[in-house]
Design a protein that fits this description.
Strand order of the largest sheet: 2-3-1-4-5
Mean pLDDT: 87
Low-confidence stretches: 102-107, 183-187
Strand content: 5-15%
Largest sheet: 5 strands, parallel
Distance between the termini: 8 Å
Order of helices and strands: EHEHHEHHEHHEH
Structural class: alpha/beta
Number of helices: 8
Helix content: 40-55%
Radius of gyration: 16 Å
Length: 187
């Protein structure tokens, strides 16, 4: 059973890549944007960046979805910005990641084993993509705040970083290789 979170700033291709990869592999796909509260969507549409207080309940709800898939042994892909290490910790461990920096204690639910796929690229390429996107609540003006907030994954997190300057088929192959050839320790 594999859980993958495709992460990165808005416009990096999380939804496109995650949904296509899930369809190809026959896995479930979730887009974290679908789980934002109306208040969060309104705030972003008005050009106001979300803060931690806005994001934590959303991330806890996403953790619950991943926990449910893990419990039912269902492979799943989630497209989610997951910009900060703390946000990724909430996806892995739920609300307990906020309450303490300690690993799960005996009797608590173990942390989820998630592969984070960081879609990385230069701001000008991603800005160009955002300018061409229609019908999304995230305005181009907030891209800089996302880059400012971004804490790229690092050890000991379970992750791979993939350049968005590659073609979609190349990116998908790189991720599949990490999943199926054991570059990332998943189980």
């Amino acid at each position: 059973m594999v859980l993958v979170v495709v992460m990165g700033v808005s416009g990096s291709g999380k939804t496109t890549l995650g949904s296509r990869l899930a369809a190809k592999l026959g896995w479930k796909f979730y887009d974290a944007d679908d789980y934002h509260s109306p208040e969060n969507k309104k705030k972003m549409a008005e050009g106001i960046p979300l803060n931690d207080e806005d994001r934590i309940p959303w991330l806890c709800a996403l953790h619950d979805i991943l926990r449910r898939e893990d419990s039912s042994r269902q492979d799943a892909i989630l497209a989610c910005s997951a910009l900060k290490m703390m946000y990724r910790s909430v996806l892995v461990s739920g609300a307990s990641a906020i309450e303490s920096n300690q690993p799960a204690q005996l009797g608590e639910k173990a942390a989820l084993n998630i592969l984070f796929v960081h879609l990385d690229g230069p701001i000008d390429i991603i800005a160009d993509r955002l300018e061409k996107r229609r019908g999304h609540f995230m305005p181009l003006e907030l891209l800089k705040s996302q880059f400012d907030t971004l804490e790229p994954p690092s050890a000991p997190e379970n992750f791979i970083t993939v350049s968005v300057e590659k073609s979609l088929p190349e990116i998908m192959l790189e991720i599949e290789s990490a999943i199926f050839q054991g570059e990332a320790v998943l189980e």
